[in-house]
Amino acid sequence: MEHPPEPLARLITAVRLAGANPAAGPPDHSELLLDPLALRRWVEQQCAGVRRVRVAGTLDRRLVFVECGEGRWVVADLSGQPHDSRAWPAWARDTVVLDEPASWLSLADVHEPGVDRLSRPGVLLAALYHPETFPLPRFPLGISTVARAARETLLGTVTLADMQLGLTLDGLVARVEADRPDVLGVSATFGQYDLLIQLLESIYAQNDLPLIVVGGSLAARVERVLLDRFPALLVARAGGEATISALLAHWHGDRTLDEVPGLGFIGAPRGGGLTVGRRRTAKPVTRDVTADVVPELDLRPATFDHHGVAQLETSRGCTSYCSFCPRDHKGSWAGAGTGQLPWLLGELAAVFDRYPQVSRTLYLVDEEFLGRGPDAPGRALRLAGLLRGAGFGWESSCRVDQVVDPGRDLGWHVERAEMWRMLVAWGLRRMLFGVESGVDSVLDRFAKGTTGEQNVLAVRTLSTLGVPTRFTYITFDPLMTLDELKATHAFQGRTDLLLAPRPDLPAAEVARGVRDSSFVATASVGRPFYQGISYLLVGMECLIGAAYTRQVQHAGLAGAVTPSMGRVEARYADWRIGAVAGWAQRWVDRHFALDYTFKSLEKVLDGDPRRQVREARSVLKDASYTVLGDLIIEVDAQPLCHDPAAEATLDARIWQQVEKRLTLLRGELATTVHDLLPALDREHAELLTVEYRRWSAASGWTLINAADSCAS
Ligand code: SF4
């Protein structure tokens, strides 16, 4: 007979000590430990519903309380670590009195105020989702790390709801109405403003309101708009972990809202009355930057059931301050601790084991994976070693200057080249680099801290080393000139950046070769650079709070605020480029869901099917690059003077061009998808078929989220 894993063996011992006699082992060992509510229900069943049960703590140290007599409880730390090794909260010192603190299992007096703390508040953490925009889910890292922080307090219960996993907005509203949580936390990101507003309006229309806190990248950007509309709302401005812990203490009256870090809210005036509240931000977050970033894994199995991908973070913040990237809520780069990583990887591996068809790949959603400092390469290699040891491939993001830095000598570049090769050997599947432009004047405007030549050398180095890459590139920005747009198009089409991999070439030869024109001429594979760009025709998003947005405002080009994307609308200094950028965005949006499906399939597949999906994406990229060239020709033929007739003329000519390209693309993609489907398993093939049909049936050129504006 197979023995249950140790935590479950401990659980059964604890239940027996409480006087119950578990008839059989738990139904699904691994899921029971992942989900505290399921764990509590199972224990309650074993106790025939006559004993009170509470489950607290995080996945690595689940704490089970089973009542066994008047005021007497069995308390079990399922990790097997002694109770006195836990950092118990202050309230527990008087309310949970353990007989055997040096053991993982103890009888205890748990006083009613302690039981109350273990029971309330009921917290529901919800993540929003637009399935028509993002067909495949990603593990909800935000609410899962916040759940861990909440559970660390041992206060109340925490459940998670993710709209990616089949829950509709109406379903979420109904769940709030049925569950009546004391605290509702909502995570909202760009593009989800409409969902957020609908949800908040529905919840605030209910009686018996929970404390509602909204977090995520969108909430931080549109705090003012949200608080004006929902004065009782709380807005978490930073990562959310410190905020939720303090908010739970606030719920029990241990803290005032002013003492909750990173919280924006409207403070009620003293003495009540009709005075308009003042928008307040409580104390800043003082985050332990070396703390591990560890999520709870309640939703991991369901994410896989919905073909989702696994995400983790190994650092937060960035080493730079690009002008288009608002930094206030993100902060400077700090590597998270790795102490918990081996345990976490083991837990993840156990979940992956149940889904053998899912690629064992982790997506490290760090803004900048490497960071600065002399130990940056060592840290990266240690992380890669841990991931490799647990049998995972991985992907992440980092800056180009982690590959080529004009301020560094040959020795530094050789060391970096060796590091990149080692990272690939140890499971790096792909690294995303934010190139953003190949044109120096544009890079200056973006405050990227890089040059076009540096980008050229970095792309050559990475391709020669055989590092699988993705690049991001901002093709249009409102302040750009036509010459810059032409230079951008030329840069994207260069065939001397992506070079043939040379696995045996010594690192020093690589560092020298990429600067040598004859080496480059020999090594070029004729593949244009745009094939390495993730989304080709994207334009600058003028995000609220970004330095670039202020440049646009100073130039008198700023327009309405668009809360759905946390951004400010902007006109283009050259109206013709604005017209092209608008049509390019329509082009991107027309293909977005299909392209995203290709990209998501690529993430969960390995081997030949993955290669074929990449080739399918390249058909879209070829078409996008060709469209850009067509549109630049149209702009060149259009005089700069601007009036409605000129605008209508250019618009009509652009429309003809994109329609012509779309007709060609339809034919090419029909063949591509037809050839690709047999290479996929049934579920992935069905998913692609649905998205392809949706794409084929689409007509018109609408923008995603075009309907959201400040006025909504
Ligand atoms: S755009 Fe990328 S590199 Fe620049 S500040 Fe933001 S995260 Fe850092």
Q: Biggest sheet, strands in spatial order?
A: 7-6-8-9-10-11-12
Q: CATH top level of the largest domain?
A: Alpha Beta
Stretches where pLDDT is under 50 for at least 5 consecutive residues are: 268-277, 286-290, 706-712
Name every ligand kind in the structure.
iron/sulfur cluster
Kindly report the CATH topology of the largest domain.
Answer: TIM Barrel
Q: Which structural class matches the secondary elements?
A: alpha/beta
CATH architecture of the largest domain: Alpha-Beta Barrel
Structural domain tally:
4
Provide the β-strand percentage band.
5-15%
Helix content: 40-55%
Oligomer description = single chain
- Count of β-strands: 21
Largest sheet: 7 strands, mixed
Give the helix tally.
Answer: 25
Radius of gyration from the alpha-carbon trace, in angstroms: 27 Å
What overall form do the CA principal axes indicate? globular
Overall residue-averaged pLDDT value: 89
Give the terminus-to-terminus CA distance.
61 Å
Describe this protein's structure.
With 712 residues, the protein is α/β, with parallel strands linked by helices. The chain has four domains: 6-118, no CATH class; 120-281, Rossmann fold (3-Layer(aba) Sandwich), CATH 3.40.50.280; 309-473 and 494-527, TIM Barrel; 537-544 and 555-712, no CATH class. Helices cover 44% and strands 14% of the residues. The chain contains 25 helices and 21 strands. Strands 7-6-8-9-10-11-12 form a seven-stranded mixed beta sheet, with helices on both faces. Strands 1-2-3-5-4 form a five-stranded antiparallel beta sheet, sandwiched between helices. Helix 22 packs antiparallel against helix 25 (682-697). The protein is globular and about 85 Å long. The model is unreliable at 268-277, 286-290 and 706-712 (pLDDT under 50). The site of iron/sulfur cluster has 9 residues, from loops. Residues 318, 320-322, 325, 367-368, 399, 434 line the site of iron/sulfur cluster.
